[in-house]
Specification:
5-stranded antiparallel β-sheet
């Protein structure tokens, strides 16, 4: 299993050992900001994510890594880990799902990726280019983990921005529903190494970027 997933599992196990009453899912928490990218001709070209991991995951992800200054990691020192992370995310479709004008749109592999370490917290930056850039009257990008192993939330401030978008384009966020007691009880019965029976469960907690262009 690739390091990204191994690190998540280790962080999850640690979280559960310190909090016996914690819910089994999710295991990792990510606060994100996303920029929808446009070319000068008004075509949408992709999305750039910045995923800030929780402190437990950040601690475990950097364990055993060499650095010139103890407890502080440069972008260069973290680059091998960043490469492993984005490579591992491919089999999960980068947890990012796009529709352009109502039709599914595919992403190419990430570019311009790196990890940032600030105040003991890791943030993964990467760009997902669309395989076919196009003019989009309606664009929707959902970010979620179908198994709800990872909880994604947009940052409260500047969760999304439109980079280079035509003036007629406006973006908005649709944040996921809050978990009710019934769902929480169901999740609490799923063990830390078990999968949620219905793998589309996390779609109920999808974060949605919606862009409309007049």
């Amino acid at each position: 299993m690739k390091r990204f997933v191994r690190t998540i599992l280790a962080a999850a196990a640690a979280c559960l050992s310190f909090a016996a009453t914690a819910q089994a899912h999710p295991h990792v928490w990510i606060v994100m900001t996303s920029a929808v990218l446009y070319a000068p001709d008004g075509t949408v070209t992709g999305v750039r994510h910045a995923w800030t991991f929780d402190d437990m995951f950040s601690t475990f992800a950097t364990q055993g890594l060499d650095s010139k200054q103890k407890g502080v990691f440069t972008r260069e020192e973290l680059q091998p880990l960043a490469e492993v992370n984005v490579t591992s995310l491919k089999e999960y479709d980068y947890f990012s799902y796009a529709k352009v004008n109502g039709k599914k749109a595919e992403f190419n592999d990430p570019v311009d990726y790196y990890l940032e370490h600030d105040k003991d917290i890791l943030t993964l930056h990467f760009t997902l280019p669309l395989k076919t850039p196009m003019k989009a009257q309606n664009l929707e990008i959902e970010v979620y983990d179908p198994s709800y192993f990872i909880d994604f939330q947009f940052a409260e401030k500047d969760g999304i921005v439109l980079k280079g978008a035509p003036a007629a384009c406006k973006g908005m966020l649709a944040r996921p529903q809050e978990m009710n007691k019934e769902l929480a009880d169901r999740l609490s019965k799923v063990g830390p190494n078990e999968k949620i029976p219905e793998n589309s469960f996390g779609a109920q907690f999808a974060n949605k970027i919606r862009v409309r262009c007049q």
